[in-house]
Amino acid sequence: xxxxxxxxxxxxxxxxxxxxxxxxxxxxxxxxxxxxxxxxxxxxxxxxxxxxxxxxxxxxxxxxxxxxxxxxxxxxxxxxxxxxxxxxxxxxxxxxxxxxxxxxxxxxxxxxxxxxxxxxxxxxxxxxxxxxxxxxxxxxxxxxxxxxxxxxxxxxxxxxxxxxxxxxxxxxxxxxxxxxxxxxxxxxxxxxxxxxxxxxxxxxxxxxxxxxxxxxxxxxxxxxxxxxxxxxxxxxxxxxxxxxxxxxxxxxxxxxxxxxxxxxxxxxxxxxxxxxxxxxxxxxxxxxxxxxxxxxxxxxxxxxxxxxxxxxxxxxxxxxxxxxxxxxxxxxxxxxxxxxxxxxxxxxxxxxxxxxxxxx
Length: 360
Prior knowledge:
Radius of gyration: 19 Å
CATH topology: Aminopeptidase
Largest sheet: 8 strands, mixed
Number of domains: 1
Shape: globular
């Protein structure tokens, strides 16, 4: 996520974001055997990133809900592999214009190819190349064409850049950006795979990994200038989705909830799943305008960001400590599954969110 510290009103202390501990329920056990899992109290067995809870329970409905909620069988091993690859030291913090982000882009492209995504518009590859601030940049875009409404597009996005490395200092100098925003990219790749396997999307889905978000939403701003926003039905942006929010297990929150009925559609689709979506609890931080969803929202597209992290307490935000081992893979997996279920009626053309209300 683009640095909050740069744009918060001066009346807020910078220490809010940098000095407090993460509000997780013993999610980071030292040996992974005595830790209680952050989601339902089961003993962890897979180390510091959290155990793989029984996600099959996610698809059960409440007793009073007669309809069974269809959910994908998302593989936590796949989620973990994506996360640990994208947030590895080999990616060197994925700063825009560096060899590290090139490695990340190649990884994303290879996954798009495996899934069978098409290129977008007149692009010859998955890369949308451009130059800004004297730096060669590229968004990575893959298309899953729709059936009956292929000219109506839903975008699923995250930013794949981060802060790179410290220029000097002792010890760890790599800003791995596991939660910010390798977690979101994991969501994009996983959703692309499972939507493609379902093969029943009536609307087209555009999977976009934006560059240079940390430099000021540059990648998404450029993207917005290349499209006809009237063709974009909704924007599903994923950021910081690897930690338990203050609203508790199996919950997430959505930026700009009141600006369209997108969030209410998601809430309705999640009824009976045991997963709940809440409005953004951090309105004073104006997070709706801090991530790539804002670039599309300013064009009228009902584009919002899903998040789970208690950012006012997160000790790893924009720190070298934002590493894969600090995330809970089960939380990440459940959140991806919730996004899949929650957005299905939009993907299938049943629901169309209202256009955005942009009073800043």
